[in-house]
Amino acid sequence: MFRGRPWPKECFLNSLFRQPNVTTLLNFPTNNSLLLPLISSRSISCRSKRLGSKLRERDDEKQFSDAGFWHDLRLRSDLNQAYSPTGANLQEPQLSEISPDSANSELESTLSTSLSFSRKAGDRQRGRIRGRAINQRRNPRRFWKLDPWKFKPTKTEYLLDTLHKFVHNPSNGSSRQWTLAARKPDDPLMTPLIKPRRSTYKSTQRISLQEALADYIYDVDRHLNQENGPRKSDSSAPENISTESAVDVGLRNFSRRGFYNYLHRRFYSTADLTTWAWVLKSPTPYRAILRLLAVENQDRTRNGIFFRSVPPFIPLLLLRQSLDSRAFRLLLPYCLSLISGQPLPPPEAYEKATAGDISLEDAPLESLRPLIPPNMCITFAIRLLHHARQLLPQAQVPIARALTTYLEAVKSEGQNSVSKPTLRNLRLMIQGLNTVLRSLSLPCRLRPFASIPIQQEAQFEILKAMAKNQPVLPVTRRGYQGIIAVQLAHNKTQAERQWAELKAPSWPPWKQEKLGIDAQRGFEGMRSRALRVMHQMHKAGYNHSLWEHVYRIYAGWDTDQSPTIQVRTLARQPWFLRKPVEKVTHHAVWEARIRATRTVHEAWACFLSYQDLGLPPRAKIYVAMAEKLIYSGICTNNLDQASHALPGDRLEVFPEPSSARDLIYVHTQPLKMDEFLKQMLSHGFRPRGRFLALLLRNAPSFASGLDYLSCSDLSDEQLKALCTLWRQESTHSHDAVRAVNEIPDSLFSAFIAFLCKFSSLDGKWARHVHHLDAFPIILGHWSMAPFKTKTLFSYATGKGGNDGDRHPDFLKHAIRLLMMRRSQSPQPWDCVLTAVSKNRISRFLQHQIGLHTQIVLSWYESLEVLDLMNDRKIETSTQGFRTLCNLFSKLMVAQRQHPEAVQRALHLVARAAQSGALVHADLRYLHFAHVAPRGLETLKGLFDQIVVSGSRSSSVFGPWRTASEGASESLPDLLYVPAPVDLHALVRSLGSADDFDGLLRLLRWMSRYELAIQEISDRYMNGARMKRLTVVAIRVFLEGDLRGESWESLGRMRSAHGQSEIGSSDGTSPEPNAGMLPDNQVLGEAYDIVTASDVWGPWPSDEEVEDYCQVHRKEHRVL
């Protein structure tokens, strides 16, 4: 009976605890005893009941740990009941995808077994088992690496195995050696070698530097005891004697294998082997890079600027690992000099690389001395490009230029060169450069579309070098496909936009002349740039494969020569569509047709046409149609009539034509989302990957999101780890941590966003939850509710409405999941920052905690989240920076309008810090006068970290040098060029805190880099508008027009708190410009900077200022 309640008993407050009013708590001193739970006399005599409740808690925890519990729970989902496990298998499998024997065995096993959500069983889709169930390694280069008897190691893998076994052996209590780990902690590169495999390698392979180093580590270096601390005292003399004898024996064994002669021929010695082992035995890759650079810099003065005392396979091994931004920027100049054949960079070059300058000095072509062969050069470029896509997209252009320098050096034949222009080397360069062209088309980790112009510039550098070479190096199919992929993701040109505007609202969208002048316009934009590259590829002699036919539809023209909608998309890799299948019936063609539409009815007509042809159902077809249904709701709610976006520029679906004659006819209307998902599940296709992430981000209710998870392809272990709210963090098992870390970053970020979306205190739970629980970071330790182990399903009561199932426990659970995960992605943390910055208590309940108090608590909780990110070395993204800027602006308005409420909230924050709830808070600065200075310091530091990588010499708000002082120096490249929306958020933060000096410094910096900002602004549809709003905001805050009567309120605020309160406890004072009117000199300099610039000028007019103030004064009145 109790389990059937719509509101579970476990989520209610215990009546034994008093719920004091928050406004009362704010006025009590620090030693207030009312913050502790009050135990009634009746509770003293009820020890047996409490003992029984503890036993029931233990039973619940055992129940939640049972796999059958989660299996039964998932089966209760309405969507899951529509799933047919044999729906996909009953379709005729393609012979190219699976053999007949395996298909028959799979079909029989599927029909004979019950529904299972285990990762080992997997979903049978398209007649095959998921590849992850067969192979536990992520994308291995050779599948027989898993078999220790069939594994044939390379030279580097032989060295890796030696390091793993004899340097950092986990069985000895030390952590896994970083050289054996791939780019993810739980992704080992290889299976440890057994003794017969090592013996076979030594007897069949030629001697190499890797083998010499591996045997030296085994025979000699591991006995030197250099990394395990100093040797023992005299009491352990026999041990020292045995260690020295082991070293002597190891040297004799090492000398018998002929390594001394081999090293002498390569101009090396055993001292070099000791140095290389010292580098590879570093505890982290960053420490290894520092040691490598120290060795090279020491030998630079001894052996000349071109000498490399460290062989190239060691930096290649470093590039094989997972690097952070600091380590990559340190290693990048060294690798670029190695590729281009230029001299070793001086030590100052690495400091500039950390600050943002990653270019090398130009050297004459005659002085270039490439020291690596072409195949190793291409390997360097591929691995550098991978890290650049993950960490620093701007580095792709210098990498491409270094590669072109190597190509120029190959043409100049020399006696000491290892890369002579032989036929074999030219063939390797042709294959390698086309591979680089394809690698330059892969999407970057963050802001992939914003990095497309950088990748295009890098591709142009490669193409120009190939065209200038004698003989001309041809572009192969792989290179053409890389160029096409970049052009597909690029913005439309002006001619392409004009062609898109002339398309008729009917289908197919042929050209429609709307004005008389349209008849005189040519067809310049009829063929997009991607389509022209395809035409050039066909002229070069390459027939179009299925990949070209599919992306021709995205480029604007169907296979039957009818027009479609030119869609900006990230192309799939060609090997996904390399099979010679009929282009009309392949499901990828119909998937592209569904995506290359404008409205839901156009996409639904393509979907029905695919079904009418009698073709087998495919998961990709359903996913494409489902995305149209999801984005149609976004279009209805967030359609911006003033937007300049055209169909294909964004994911949102456009509305149906207003005229009935332009409507496309469909014999059935589009289904609702739940009905469509049931149809998809009935064919055996479960939501997975990015589609599941899209469903979670756009879930209309909390119950709907849980239904999506129940019918997904997640295993029971992963669902249990995500949906179980444990009573304490220590109860997290190793299996739960492993399951959370196995989830892809995109899906995990979507789940965190889903939790944060419903984490406010509103709806039906508001009367059952104390308002202190809405702020778990600051006030969580004062929670009045006993927290028990439960599941997220106990909070879901229905699918109606967005405000039905909201609870602050979801935010607490999201933070705990982030603490369990080892990913470095900032996206889930951005979701938490966004949730923390919002008002979490509805306006009907603000008599308990006022809006201004909520803003103060949200600000300090955001700072705590920011410190947690810094502890895990997770860089703040631009979205997180804008969130903090907007919250700080609200904080300044609240401080100005209601200083008493802010003062009471600060007192509560200080008490939370004293109790240990805020680990990173400094009690010295939790005063009214330090709110603005400390907040500005945080925001300025974040802006420097994002834009200029934290270098003091290039700091935006640091010491300013005049133009004459810095004229002789080249400006460093920016780590990230901020978009106008980022600048506008920062201007509002500085202006709301009356930091006029900061506004002036920012304006100087904006004028200094105005061309780079203008280039970024042109890539956004609203770039020009936001850029203009930034300048208008600068004038508004410098002149004080936005505040109006707030100058008088500022005086009341100062008189209320007095001069003594404004000073700090440690004698320091806030910034001198805080709360003061700007003088005429500041305003005059700002006027001169704006009017002298073609990018930022002219000076904003009075009408622009008035319009800006009318919009933003409404926000202040809301507060």
Spans where pLDDT lies below 50 across 5 or more residues: 1-59, 88-141, 170-174, 226-242, 960-972, 1045-1076
Structural class: mainly alpha
Number of helices: 47
**How many strand units?**
2
Quaternary structure annotation: single chain
Net shape? globular
- N-to-C CA distance: 46 Å
Largest sheet: 2 strands, antiparallel
Order of strands side by side in the largest beta sheet? 1-2
% residues in beta strands: under 5%
Mean pLDDT: 75
Helix content: 40-55%
Any idea what the radius of gyration is?
A: 32 Å
Biased composition (Polar residues): 1057-1071
Region (Disordered): 84-103, 1053-1078
List the helices and strands and how they pair.
Layout: H1 22-27, H2 41-44, H3 47-65, H4 67-75, H5 100-112, H6 131-134, H7 155-166, H8 195-204, H9 209-224, H10 237-256, H11 259-265, H12 270-280, H13 285-303, H14 313-319, H15 325-340, H16 347-355, H17 374-391, H18 396-411, H19 423-439, H20 452-468, H21 477-488, H22 494-501, H23 529-539, H24 546-554, H25 587-595, H26 600-612, H27 619-638, H28 673-682, H29 689-697, H30 702-710, H31 716-723, E1 724-725, H32 734-742, H33 745-757, H34 776-779, E2 790-791, H35 809-820, H36 827-837, H37 851-871, H38 878-897, H39 899-914, H40 931-948, H41 980-992, H42 996-1008, H43 1010-1017, H44 1023-1039, H45 1046-1062, H46 1080-1091, H47 1102-1118
Antiparallel strand pairs: 1-2
